[in-house]
Every structure is written in structure tokens, then in C-alpha cells.
Amino acid sequence: MNEVMGIATVLGILGVVSSFGIFYVARQYMRLSPNVVQSFIFLKLAVAGHLTIFLTRTERRFWQKPYPAPLLFWAAIVTKVFATLFAVYGWFVSPIGWANAILIWGYALAWFVVNDFFKIWTYAIVRKGKSVL
Q: What is the domain partition of the chain in residue ranges?
């Protein structure tokens, strides 16, 4: 249970930090309206949320076996595609356009890699230095 709580805590904190990071960038640097910022956060959560599922499915690096089940993988991809289309074209949310959607995807993918390194580091600490690779 210590492992589960440790990994969940670290990934949860990193998720909050990354969400506030994109919020800060959208409001302070890009000076976007509150409605567009909401769409930014919506897309970030939709993309990064599924990426976190891919992180937590294994103790190893995300690119190592076991790979996600095809049903999980394609369900996540289809959901991400729809969320991106919703945000880009403004279906039920304020539109953000393709350039901003690509920015959010890049941001989420960068944090995905960072989160994977923190996951491995956390396993090593929780297991008192035992290698998980």
C-alpha cells in the first residue's frame, strides 16, 4: 500500500503542478480570455489524464512491456481525438485553434515523460533503493 500511495501522491502533485503551469502560461503569457483558458485546461486534462493511465499500468518505463491492451489504447486515442476536435472547433467549449491544441499536446507529452521519470524515482525510494528496471 505504501507503493500505491507514494506513486499516487507524486503523480497527483505533478498533475496539479502541470495544470497550474498551463493555466499560468495561458493567462499571463498568452493573455487568453477566461473562456479560452477553460478550453485549454479541458484539453490538457483530457490528454494528460489518459497519459497518466499509461504511466500507472506498469512499474517500468512507459515504453517497456507490458504494453497497454489494444482496447484501452484505442479507447484513449479516440477520446483524445474527440477532445481535441471539441477544443479546436469549439463544440460545447470556446474554440482554441490547431496551434494552441498542438501546444497543449506537446506540453502534456513533455510532462508525460517527466512523470515517468518521477514514477521510477518514487518506486526506487519506496522500495528503499531496489532497482525496478
A: 2-126
- Spatial CA neighbour of 26 closest among 109, 111, 101, 112: 101
User: Which residue in 25, 29, 7, 28 sits closest to 17, CA to CA?
Assistant: 25
Look up residue 121 and give its DSSP letter. H
Q: Is pLDDT above 70 for 132? A: no
75 contacts: CB under 8 Å, gap ≥ 6: none
Phi, psi at 19, each rounded to 5°: -65, -45
Q: At residue 110, what is the residue type?
A: A
Helices within 25-96 (DSSP H only) = 34-56, 70-89
pTM comes to 0.89
Half-sphere exposure (CA, 13 Å, Cβ side) for 58?
A: 16
54-107: pLDDT as tens digits: 888 888 888 888 888 999 999 999 999 999 999 999 999 999 999 999 999 999
Separation CA 21–CA 107 (nearest Å): 10
